[in-house]
Amino acid sequence: MNANMGLLLMMAAGGALGGMARMELSERLARLAGTAFPWGTLAVNLSGALLAGGLAGWFGMSHEAAMSSGWSLLMVGLLGGYTTVSSLSLQSLSLWQSGRRGAALANVSATVIAGLVLAALGWWLTGRLA
C-alpha cells in the first residue's frame, strides 16, 4: 500500500468516527434543549473549533504536519466528519425563512466568532501544555 492510500484510509476512518460523534451529540442536545434552535450543531462546531486549534498547535501547520497520518486521521478525518458547515447553513436558512432572522444571525455569528475564539484558545492551551 502506498503512502497516499494509507492517508486516505486514515481520513476515512476518522471521518466515520467524527460523523457518528456529531450525530450522537446533536441528537442528545436536541432531546435536552429542544429543536427550536440548532444547539447540537452549534456545540459540535464550537467544540470542533477548540479541538482543531489544539491539534494545529500540537502538530503545527506546516506541509509536513498536514501530510502526517495523525493530521489525516484527527484533523481532516475526525474533525472533518465531526464539524459541519452544511448543517449550519441549512439550519440558519431554515430559521431565516421561518421569520426567525435574529436566531439565524445569532447562529451564524456565534459559530464564526466563538469558533475563532475557541480555535485560538485550543492553540494557546496546546502551546502551554507542549
Automatic annotation (TrEMBL):
Catalyzed reactions per annotation? fluoride(in) = fluoride(out)
Q: What is the lineage of its organism?
A: Bacteria, Pseudomonadati, Pseudomonadota, Gammaproteobacteria, Oceanospirillales
Q: How is its activity regulated?
A: Na(+) is not transported, but it plays an essential structural role and its presence is essential for fluoride channel function.
Cite the entry's keywords alphabetically.
Answer: Cell inner membrane, Cell membrane, Ion channel, Ion transport, Membrane, Metal-binding, Sodium, Transmembrane, Transmembrane helix, Transport
Q: Give its localization.
A: Cell membrane
Query: Superkingdom of this entry's organism?
Result: Bacteria
Topology in the lipid bilayer: Multi-pass membrane protein
Q: What is its main location?
A: membrane
Give the family from UniProt: Belongs to the fluoride channel Fluc/FEX (TC 1.A.43) family.
TM spans (from-to):
36-59, 71-90, 102-125
Its function, per the record, reads: Fluoride-specific ion channel. Important for reducing fluoride concentration in the cell, thus reducing its toxicity.
What this protein is called in its record is Fluoride-specific ion channel FluC
Which amino acid positions bind Na(+), per UniProt?
A: G80, T83
Please report the organism this UniProt entry assigns to the protein: Billgrantia bachuensis
